[in-house]
From TrEMBL:
It comes from Streptomyces pseudovenezuelae. Residues 18-201 form the ABC transmembrane type-1 domain. PANTHER family: GLYCINE BETAINE/L-PROLINE TRANSPORT SYSTEM PERMEASE PROTEIN PROW, OSMOPROTECTANT IMPORT PERMEASE PROTEIN OSMW. This is ABC transporter permease. InterPro entries: ABC_transp_perm/SBD, MetI-like, MetI-like_sf. The keyword Transit peptide does not apply. Its main location: membrane. Belongs to the binding-protein-dependent transport system permease family. Keywords: Membrane, Transmembrane, Transmembrane helix, Transport. The chain crosses the membrane at residues 24-44, 183-204. It comes from the Bacteria. SUPFAM superfamilies: MetI-like. PROSITE patterns: ABC_TM1.
Length: 215
């Protein structure tokens, strides 16, 4: 069976796996973005706190994904829970680091001006600082998403959702006539999803970042 014949015979299952893969990455990125930006907001004013946040999230990223999921299984079981926890933790570093860099890069004169017209700390943050820090934060989100697309494939080890199941099935049946097709279909599916997500982020950037700031 050729690769194209394999795609034709398995397209429904592949589309279902692709949807689950994209859904898992998207939902984990939403959670990681909220947590990462909050960490950035809390720590960016302090050099020590900012370094601690960056170092901690960097350390998490050094843990091999297979080991991370394996360590989570005894506590949360198989399937979706270890996948969500692992992906969320892995997605934090670029967002936290870029949120801190972006917030620290806001012109102090603009913050002083906002204070001068009576804005509260929260209002300054929401209306001045975070909008100006949005471009680097969005870049961090893009980087995290690309990483998680690949890492999410490992979730199949814990019976998680996504295209990793196709890859693992192919690896487990190496030597069979469709093993290579399975691995190739899963891998190409992840690449296509990563490109689609990145294109969506480019569009979001064009819609939300003023041309003068984009450069």
């Amino acid at each position: 069976m050729t690769f194209w014949e394999y795609l034709g015979s398995r397209h429904q299952q592949l589309l279902a796996d692709a949807y689950q893969h994209a859904s898992a990455v998207f939902q984990c990125m939403v959670v990681a973005t909220v947590i990462g930006v909050l960490i950035g907001v809390v720590t960016y004013r302090s050099e020590w706190a900012g370094n601690l946040a960056t170092t901690t999230t960097s350390t998490i990223l050094t843990i091999p994904s297979l080991a991370m999921i394996g360590l989570l299984i005894p506590g949360v079981g198989l399937g979706v829970p270890p996948t969500v926890i692992a992906l969320t933790l892995y997605g934090l570093l670029p967002i936290v680091r870029n949120a801190i860099v972006g917030l620290r890069g806001v012109d102090p004169a603009l913050v002083d001006a906002a204070t001068g017209i009576g804005m509260s700390r929260v209002t300054r943050l929401v209306r001045v600082e975070l909008p100006l820090a949005w471009p680097p934060i969005l870049t961090g989100i893009r980087v995290s998403t690309q990483m998680l697309m690949g890492i999410a494939a490992i979730a199949a080890y814990a019976s998680g959702p996504g295209l990793g199941n196709e890859i693992f099935r192919g690896i487990a049946s190496l030597g069979s006539k469709n093993a290579l097709n399975q691995v190739l279909a899963g891998t190409l599916g992840i690449i296509v999803l990563a490109l689609l997500f990145d294109a969506a982020y480019v569009l979001i950037g064009r819609l939300t970042i003023p041309r003068g700031i984009r450069g």
